[in-house]
Amino acid sequence: MKKTNAVITAVGGYVPEYILTNQELSTMVDTTDEWIMTRVGIKERHIQKGEGLGVSDMGVEAVKDIFKKTGVKPEEIDLIICATVTPDQPFPATANVMADKLGIKNGHGFDLNGACSGFLYALDTASRFIESGAKKKVLVVGADKMSSIVDYTDRTTCVLFGDAAGAVLLEPTEEEIGIQDRILRSDGMGRNYLYMKAAGSIHPASHETIDNKMHYIYQDGQPVFKHAVSKMADVSVEIMKRNNLTADDISWLVPHQANLRIIGATGERMNLPKEKVMVNIERYGNTTAATIPLCLWEWEKKLSKGENLILAAFGAGFTWGSIYLKWGYDTK
């Protein structure tokens, strides 16, 4: 009996229309285009504007993109997983909100919080449902409205983040394509360096938490950068060695878009030329769980069936990981 693999059969994406440039940011906070580009490599980021709009609305658009491309109907979907740190509300799950807006009624859904590694965690989780035979069509959505938790008076964090959504459709196959291997890790020591201080059960929302700006992203940049550079590169090299892959075997590195220097360091450790590394951070910034599917969405027409891809991420927690997959289709 042949092994069942989980393979990506479609990719969708969405970015809001409004673009926040470095020039505009320089009128809001003490920063410059040169300062931002030198340190993180970001030129602009997309921001979701509009009363009552949340991360589910971006996720819905990304999934609609998949439905339009494939002809798959909402009633065919039997699981939807949303990776996000900015859900519409603490509950119900944003995946359920999206399912309702999309007309998905024959499956179940849930959210997953792995911070910037969330999409990889969700992709791995979804693949297990496929490989076990429990599910046939699974949507994995990575989406974040980071502008909702960014302090635009803090120049160390407000320059980094943008809003976006990306989604993939996973299906079973007996071909030797799809997800081949994964390495996912976490270390709770990182919880003190990148987090939101309030809005949980330790510090519920109050006048005090709002006055003290505890509902925004807090980041201690140096420790985060140090661990991100080493962990993301280490795990990418590890998965290559485990599968006897050389740089010549890899068609694309699909890295989390947190910082241009981190992306560069990971590619260098893998001995990959820049031409094999997907980079769009300059135009979108760090969209957290959306960065990797957003890359796949943008590069979809350049991907060929059977190509080896390494997906890699690092995020708050600390969380990090890498997934090795063989691309599942040629774009027509």
Please estimate the helix content: 25-40%
The CATH homologous superfamily of the largest domain: Thiolase/Chalcone synthase
Task: Please report the number of helical segments.
Answer: 11
Order of helices and strands: EEHHEHEHEHEHEEEHEHEHHHEE
What spatial form do the alpha-carbon principal axes imply? Answer: globular
Rg is: 19 Å
According to DSSP, the number of beta strands is 13
Terminal Cα span: 31 Å
Biggest β-sheet: strands ordered side by side in the sheet: 1-7-6-4-5
Our count of domains comes out at 2
**Uncertain segments:** none
Structure class: alpha/beta
Assign the CATH topology of the largest domain: Peroxisomal Thiolase, Chain A, domain 1
Q: Major sheet: size, sense and barrel closure?
A: 5 strands, mixed
Q: What's the level 1 CATH class of the largest domain?
A: Alpha Beta
Mean pLDDT: 96
| CATH architecture term of the largest domain | 3-Layer(aba) Sandwich
- The percent range for strand residues is 15-25%
